[in-house]
């Protein structure tokens, strides 16, 4: 017993609170990036009251598929680990009788902003929504900043038009009732955890609420110009039309009958 305790102590024992619970030795917690291409997470079941059944791995509370094995010493291999591999890993050992036992290994990394709203174009009076999404662990604390005249000013809920909503790896900034003079500009979301911090930029443009009418006004203007052209043209044309109507229809008819005669002649010639 004292022998196994000594080994377990040397191997960074995950504390065991009661004698009924199994003891599990784990590899140390780690901060990315690591040297080399592979990160091995290890759990060794060093003592248990019951008969060991199997083990598996979890990440952030979800079972990692295809990690179940009957081994008492279990490994989880991360190839070329990146920020999105960071998280709270847990190995779980199940027993024929009694509750499963588990141990956790933290894999930390700086936050990395993996997607964000690059630009938002809205009309005054509307609502703008900017967002940023991160990977990395622990989850960051999010802040929003407006960059104006060379100065970053933090944005919070205090203005009654700005709302910051953040959860774990995601944050949103809502700006309601957009103002064409106050609101356009450069916004930054900033993700900060114990390792480091990152930020990304979004550009907000605000148009006059007349702006969406401009294409319509353009079409209306075109229609009006067309109508004017037609009216003017028709007015100029009118005297001729009247003359035509007054003229006897004779010459037109003779023309067409002449055409018929020509055709008949041509047909006869070919025959
Ligand atoms: C687990 O056991 C293996 C040998 O079976 C050993 O190489 C490894 O260092 C142990 N890991 C820990 C975290 O105890
Ligand atoms: C891990 O162990 C703790 C305490 O022993 C227990 O409360 C928890 O439910 C276990 N979690 C899992 C996923 O087995
Ligand atoms: C963000 O965290 C949630 C759990 O809080 C997780 O389901 C989701 O996959 C995470 N997204 C990214 C991009 O890491
Ligand atoms: C800001 O207001 C929104 C909406 O009322 C709320 O969900 C959010 O938690 C608030 N954020 C802070 C930092 O108080
Ligand atoms: C993010 O905000 C923190 C806290 O204000 C600050 O220390 C850090 O420099 C900022 N990081 C970036 C990338 O803007």
From TrEMBL:
Q: Where is the Ig-like domain?
A: 22-106, 111-205
Q: Name one Pfam family in it.
A: Ig_3
Gene Ontology CC terms: axon; plasma membrane
PROSITE patterns for the chain: IG_LIKE
In residue numbers, the region (Disordered) covers 240-271
Indicate the secretion signal residues. 1-18
- Biological process, per Gene Ontology: axon guidance; dendrite self-avoidance; homophilic cell adhesion via plasma membrane adhesion molecules
The cross-references to PANTHER family, in alphabetical order and at most eight, read: BASIGIN RELATED, NEUROPLASTIN
Tell me what this protein is called.
Answer: Neuroplastin-like isoform X2
């Amino acid at each position: 017993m004292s022998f196994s305790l000594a080994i377990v102590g040397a191997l960074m024992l995950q504390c065991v609170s009661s004698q009924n619970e199994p003891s599990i030795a784990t590899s140390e917690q780690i901060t990315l990036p690591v040297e080399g291409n592979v990160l091995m997470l290890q759990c060794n079941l060093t003592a248990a009251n019951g008969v060991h059944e199997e083990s598996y791995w979890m990440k952030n509370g979800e079972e990692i598929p295809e990690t179940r094995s009957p081994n008492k010493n279990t490994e989880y291999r991360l190839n070329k680990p990146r920020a999105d591999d960071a998280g709270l890993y847990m190995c779980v050992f199940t027993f024929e009788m009694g509750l499963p036992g588990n141990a956790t290994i933290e894999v930390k990394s700086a936050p990395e902003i993996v997607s964000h709203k690059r630009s938002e174009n809205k009309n005054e009076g509307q609502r703008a929504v900017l967002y940023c999404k991160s990977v990395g662990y622990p989850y960051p604390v999010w802040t929003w900043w407006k960059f104006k005249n060379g100065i970053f000013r933090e944005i919070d809920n205090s203005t009654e038009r700005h709302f910051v909503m953040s959860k774990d790896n995601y944050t949103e900034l809502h700006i309601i009732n957009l103002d064409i003079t106050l609101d356009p500009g450069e916004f930054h979301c900033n993700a900060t955890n114990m390792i480091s911090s990152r930020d990304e930029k979004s550009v907000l443009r605000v148009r006059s609420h007349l702006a969406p009418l401009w294409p319509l006004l353009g079409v209306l203007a075109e229609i009006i110009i067309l109508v004017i052209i037609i009216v003017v043209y028709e007015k100029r044309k009118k005297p001729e039309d009247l003359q035509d109507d007054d003229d006897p229809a004779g010459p037109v008819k003779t023309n067409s009958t002449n055409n018929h005669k020509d055709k008949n002649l041509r047909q006869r010639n070919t025959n």
